Amino acid sequence: MPRPGVIICEALRNAFKKKKATIDYPFQEGVKPKKGLRGAHYFILEKCTGCRACERACPPMCIEMVPSEVTKTGKRPVINLGECIFCGLCEEACRYDALFLTDYIELSAFGRDEMIIYSKETKPSESKEQQEEG
Amino acid sequence: MAEKKIVKVDAPKTGCVACMPRTMEIPLGPQHPALKEPEHFLLEVEGEVIVNATPRIGYVHRGIEKLAETKTYSQNLTLVERVCGICSHIHSISLVNATETALGLEGFKPPERAEYIRTIVSELERIHSHILWFGVAAHEIGFDTLFMLSWRDRELTMDILEDISGNRVNYAINEVGGTRRDLSEKQIARMNKYMDITIKRLKRYTEICLKEDTIRLRTQGIGVLLPSTAKKLCAVGPTARASGLKIDIRYDDPYNAYAGPLRDIFNVITYDTNDVFSRVVVRLLEIIEACKYVKWLLANLPDGPVFIKPPRKVPEAHVLSRTEAPRGELIHYLWSNNTNKPYRLKITTPTLANILSVAEMLKGDYIADSTITLASIDPCFSCEDRIITIINKDRRKAKVDNLTMDQLRKYSREWHAKNKRWKK
Ligand code: SF4
Ligand code: SF4
């Protein structure tokens, strides 16, 4: 016994629903969990010792150690967010809590160079703002 | 007698209809709107009916196996997750199981809670993968309402996964020695709630599928794969189960939490109409089962740590780890050599096992039905490619020569003088 259009009533009920299933994303804020998201890195220069543990842990080898005057070993990590896969292994490798992932995920940029964030050494407190700009 | 051609070209047959070739060859792919990934199918057609199909794989070789040899085990877990875009977690389970089996030679054992969490995530992944397939199949047969509705319900599972792992696709929740995140009470309550909604919705969809003519007319009697053929061609996963074969690695060769008391309530879903409709029903019923397993696992989640620090070096071993991915049996073969990096890693994905079955299914169908038949195995061509075949490397430079017999003799003498002791 053919029964066409079983789904029609379902579709109609959906059409007149007040609450939409989708979000007008760039104009409206997206949904994201309160904590535990893996987004752009937050790096605290004062805590870093330059131990290179994060560099060794990184799977796509996107952490580069650059010379620094603040850290103990004279090196500090610089992360290429264009190559980063946001696995969070660097965060786990760092024993000094100098590097962790934030929930900042809107990371589009106009070029590959902009994805590498060299924060200025003199004002380490600004590093987050710079990262967010990138 | 100067210009004697050695390369002969068959003149096109003209004239009466009886002399015309009966079949025609139509290439489907590698770039084709019906395929989401590059793959080549040479369809031999007789009018509108496909009489033969030849698949050709190897368009998206990415060298993951070679790359895995250069990375440590915990780095490899993030690498193998990227083999497949949809069933990412099952790859990392496979590798982590293989690694922990090798470590087990030295008495290492992962904590039980971690094994349960891994299983929960893999079942959630099965739910979202099957709903995704269901939506794609509905879209393929032109039933876009169902496509939209089912994908809306898929978001619930995706939200849970994002909540517990921190990412929607590549969860990175596995670590050699356990998992990297624990489940909180709040998350467990949320999962239970969402699973109830998903079960309710999926029961409704199953009802719709069994009754709605739109689906039945387009899927029944299409892409038939008889059980004997499925067995002969080594079909796996839902494709085999839809042909009535009771094959499921979760039941046949249990791993993680499936080896525990979950085995008692485990139910291998089969359906016996052997066609695309059967595959739709098997997958829908599997989602409902998977929701029930998630709920059972959450209720019986053991206490304890989720991570135990493993030894740095993995002892020498050859390990074959089999897991049931959403698409079928997934095999990881690991060869460790007492270092912190694998010596060799071999990955065989379910689509590779099913690709011969799909060639068999296409036979006897209309060309118009080829897209849904192809989609019915839930193909993931990018995962399966482990080799690349290069035919005629410098094709642009290649030219076709017409040689006379004398010229050919001269050419052969010169060639052999140049390539001395050349062997095939
Ligand atoms: S960020 Fe942490 S792991 Fe990386 S160099 Fe600094 S202290 Fe070491
Ligand atoms: S999140 Fe992963 S990929 Fe990104 S920098 Fe850290 S270790 Fe490297």
**In the CATH classification, which architecture of the largest domain in chain B applies?**
Orthogonal Bundle
As for the CATH topology of the domain at 34-122 in chain A, it is Alpha-Beta Plaits
Total helices of chain A: the number is 4
Q: Care to count the β-strands of chain A? A: 4
The helix fraction of chain B, in percent, is 40-55%
The secondary structure category of chain A is alpha+beta
Compose a concise summary of this entry.
The complex is a heterodimer of chains A (134) and B (424). With 134 residues, chain A is an alpha+beta fold.
Can you tell me about this structure?
The complex is a heterodimer of chains A (134) and B (424). In chain A, 19% of the residues lie in helices and 12% in strands. Chain A has 134 residues and is an alpha+beta fold. Chain A has a domain at 34-122: 2-Layer Sandwich (Alpha-Beta Plaits). The relative contact order of chain A is 0.19. Chain B has two domains: 64-353, Cytochrome-c3 Hydrogenase, chain B; 393-424, no CATH class. Chain B is 46% helix and 12% strand. Chain B has a three-stranded antiparallel beta sheet. In chain B, strands 6-7-8 form a three-stranded antiparallel beta sheet. In chain B, strands 4-5 form a two-stranded antiparallel ribbon. In chain B, helix 4 (112-140) runs antiparallel to helix 14 (370-376). The model of chain B is unreliable at 1-5 (pLDDT under 50). The A-B interface holds A 2-7, 10-11, 14, 21, 31-33, 36-38, 57-59, 85-89, 92 and B 71, 74-76, 78-79, 82, 145-146, 149, 152, 155, 159, 162-167, 170, 172, 180-181, 204, 207-208, 211-214. The site of one iron/sulfur cluster has 14 residues of chain A, from helix 3.
